[in-house]
Amino acid sequence: MHTTCWERLLDSPALRLAPGFLDRLQADEVLARLDGELEWQRPRLRLYGREHTLPRRQVWMGDAEARYRYSGQDFTPEPWHPAAAWVRDRVQACLAQIDVPARFNSVLLNRYADGEERMGWHSDDEPELGEAPIIAAVSLGAERPLRMRWKHGVGKPFNVWLPHGSLLLMGAGCQAALQHALLPRRLPGLRISLTFRHVVPR
Ligand SMILES: O=C(O)CCC(=O)C(=O)O
Ligand SMILES: [Fe+2]
């Protein structure tokens, strides 16, 4: 079986990057299918009493019971697209090889048309995700940095550059210790990310 190479970015909490998770052809094909075949949404959100338009597009997908609250709104997942389900199975098999027995029942797909589109600072620590969630993020298209900063203490912020076809593992404890953001940058090109999660059914 194909063995994936991992870079250890942090040991505690575990933050790992597999730059060559998908090869070029696989990554190109999944990017094209997800871009062309999903109904990308740009929801309006109320934050601090003001209406905002999401500065990216997204699709929430998963098993029917994986309902989720995000930024004050309830989302019922779309059924699995075959390309997303294929990536999910690959991610789970790849994590099993490094003894991370994750099962993901949902994925948030984010579509950034160019470097202006973004995601602000947050941790994926909603109660629906349980105590110490494991999040696996697959990146397709334009390579951009995920900015990370520590919530406590004096550790410096840092960038994790996410190449086309890469897999980032944010292991148990990452969401409690760190926030992350995809900040705007003068970089051209479409990028799609898939952040796999396990939602504890209500
Ligand atoms: O696009 C990315 O790589 C970040 C996405 C993210 O943080 C999320 O979906 O929670
Ligand atoms: Fe996130």
Structural notes for this entry:
17% of the residues lie in helices and 37% in strands. The strands form 4 sheets. Strands 1-2-13-10-15-8-5 form a 7-stranded antiparallel beta sheet, with helices on one face. Strands 9-14-11-12 form a 4-stranded antiparallel beta sheet. It has 202 residues and is an alpha+beta fold. The chain starts with 6 loop residues before the first strand and ends in a 5-residue tail after the last strand. It has a single domain (7-37, 54-197), classed as Jelly Rolls. Bound molecules: 2-oxoglutaric acid and fe (ii) ion (FE2). Fe (ii) ion binds next to loops.
What are the SSEs and their pairings?
Layout (H helix, E strand, L loop, with lengths): L6 E4 L4 E4 L5 H14 L6 E4 L2 E4 L3 E6 L5 E3 L2 E3 L6 H16 L8 E7 L6 E4 L12 E7 L2 E7 L7 E5 L3 E5 L3 H4 E5 L8 E7 L5
Antiparallel strand pairs: 1-2, 2-13, 3-4, 5-8, 6-7, 8-15, 9-14, 10-13, 10-15, 11-12, 11-14
Q: Return the CATH topology.
A: Jelly Rolls
Oligomer: single chain
How many DSSP helices?
Answer: 3
User: How much is the average pLDDT?
Assistant: 94
CATH A-level architecture: Sandwich
Strand order of the largest sheet: 1-2-13-10-15-8-5
How many domains make up the 3D coordinates?
1
Sequence of secondary-structure elements: EEHEEEEEHEEEEEEHEE
Q: What is the name of the CATH class?
A: Mainly Beta
Classify the beta-strand content into a percent band.
35-45%
Ligand inventory: 2-oxoglutaric acid, fe (ii) ion
Q: Low-confidence segments, ≥5 residues, pLDDT <50?
A: none
